[in-house]
Amino acid sequence: MALAIQFKQVGGPEVLSLAEVAIGEPGPGQARVRHHAIGLNFIDTYHRSGLYPLSLPSGLGMEAAGVVEALGAGVDYLSVGDRVAYAGGPLGAYASVRIMPADKLVRLPDSISFETAAAMMLQGLTAEYLLRRTYAVQPGDAVLIHAAAGGVGQIAVQWAKALGAFVIGTAGGPDKAALAGSLGCDVAIDYRSDDFVAATRAATQGMGVRVVYDGVGKDTFMGSLDCLAARGMMVTYGNASGPVPDIAPLLLSQKGSLFLTRPTLGHYTATRAELVAAAEALFAVVASGQVRIQIAQRYALADAAQAHHELEARKTVGSTILLP
């Protein structure tokens, strides 16, 4: 038996409950993993609330790290006892033990702890594809990263600096703005007290940035378009404040022949080769010290509802993990 967080209806954090579940043997192409740490991400709240619909009842959570306990037939690229991590689904990471598709697992190098891996896999792989593939940041590029004190934001700021970018970050409140600055932002903007569009334009001598990475959504989307230089790219990858408004394509022309994309991790790790390459890039930048993973909050698995309450209330900073 294993412990797992489940929910039978969508709603607030109160719909989450801890249950005992039976875990069998892995089938062909599968692995049974005993979790040592589990990642908490804002996308988990989208699944729980129904913003991203799914079949119910359901498990929850998209990333974790642990040890392979058993392997099904046909899995010759992993061994029992391997330290592994994963991100991106299928849902069900909020559990002490689970069966996983083996091709979604990547080996953890000895230099990366279970807690660090659980805190960084989804956010770090997201930062990897955003910065290296959605818009490949080049030395000297001016970039704007919203929610720079958040989980993805903290990794993205450090990684963008490692790539040689001029980094502008926004955060809510002076403490979070100060944190963004300490991570390497050349300009850290407190969007609660400052106009981030005006501040971004001022920081770039009126030119605007080459790319905006926006995981906030509705509250920042239109302003983000006004921060872009001509032919800049708007990357909207999350909806923390709600879905972005509909716009006419002509608006992109009027604001400077802009590019707009709404990427998702699954399309950038669709093959095992892509997944392994992305994970290796993430492990390398963390192992080098260029990106530091800060775990700011730890909760017991049984306290997942409380963790969701505090995440949605913007009381958390950086990465949060659950411990089974």
Automatic annotation (TrEMBL):
Record domain Enoyl reductase (ER): where: 11-322
Organism domain of life: Bacteria
Lineage: Bacteria, Pseudomonadati, Pseudomonadota, Betaproteobacteria, Neisseriales
Gene3D superfamilies: Medium-chain alcohol dehydrogenases, catalytic domain (3.90.180.10), NAD(P)-binding Rossmann-like Domain (3.40.50.720)
CDD domains: QOR2
Keyword Magnesium set for record: no
Pfam family, one: ADH_zinc_N
InterPro entries linked: ADH-like_C (IPR013149), ADH-like_N (IPR013154), ER (IPR020843), GroES-like_sf (IPR011032), NAD(P)-bd_dom_sf (IPR036291), QOR-like (IPR047618), Quin_OxRdtase/zeta-crystal_CS (IPR002364)
Keyword hit for Transcription: no
Species in which this protein is naturally found: Chitinimonas viridis
Key words, A-Z: NADP, Oxidoreductase
Name of this chain's protein: Quinone oxidoreductase
